[in-house]
Amino acid sequence: MIIHLNKNISKTVAKEIAQKYEAVELFTEDKTILITPHSVKKVDEKYLDHIERSWVFDNDMQLASKKYSSEIREIQIGKFSIGGKSNNTLLTIGPCGVESKEQITQTAELIKECGLHTIRAGAFKPRTSPYSYQGMGIEGLKLLAEIRDKYNFSLITEVRDSTHIDAVIDYADVIQIGAKSMYDHGILRRCGKTKKPILLKRGFGSTIQEFVQAAEFILSGGNENVILCERGIRTFETKSRFTLDLCGVAYLKEYTNLPIVLDPSHAMGYSYGVPDLARACMAMDVEGLLIEVHPEPKVAKSDASQQLNHDEFRKLFNTLKPIAKAINKTII
User: Fold this and answer.
1) Which of 69, 92, 116, 297 would suit a FRET pair with 46, their CA atoms being 20 to 30 Å apart?
2) What is the pTM of this model?
3) Which residues pair with 112 in a beta bridge?
């Protein structure tokens, strides 16, 4: 249950209601909001005069629900926005991980050539194996920020764990929470304390409800700028790395008020299939696509098999434009 309290309510009464219903308190500029467990369906009559409005839910997808707010949230990323009344589709490209200044500069030149405005790459890599490339760390983060500033881009980069989350928040324009970190409550709660946009990736073994409830940790912490990223889930299929859940995306579009980004690169896992999957993603009329691109994928230190080279991306980009036009979208 979400409860909007009257503006003139005393702090004592507000605290009493919150404690009685085990509610999370959320303070905005003009409202005090209580979010209770969804099992709460009504409040005592003695509190009704203190309540401006309330919403009852069947599950704990509450702040993200269209039942609460029917419009897709508008999120500002640099000079542009996605969601809301905008028709923008954010096309974010870059390598899996930053490896050198030359590599990331070549990527920036490609982004500039295509008229795009966002660069993404990981400085801290949450790898499955301890023996795989773990990223350049803080030096990579500084390098990404240097290139971002030089080209006037927005920067999306991933936080791996709590040891460097403050550094990522300081340097990045959009903080990415990867699939392996979706359940990390320390990261989720810290990201709830910033106002910067958060790109939350779905865990590959997570249900839609678990995914959205992870977003609720951030939203209930006070950060309204959450973007959901579907990047594939683990199924019985072995011929692709994961299975991109476009059915789940249809559900998210229908029932949640959060912008959606799709990641065909991690879902497919093999570069040959990324263009077809990316075109399907664009046709889903979502707010963004994330595509991994590397100057020379065969020598990439991480996720080499799924990254497009620059010529492959140029060809793909030209085929995305008519699809975007057909659904009245502007690629940014």
Assistant:
1) 69
2) 0.95
3) none
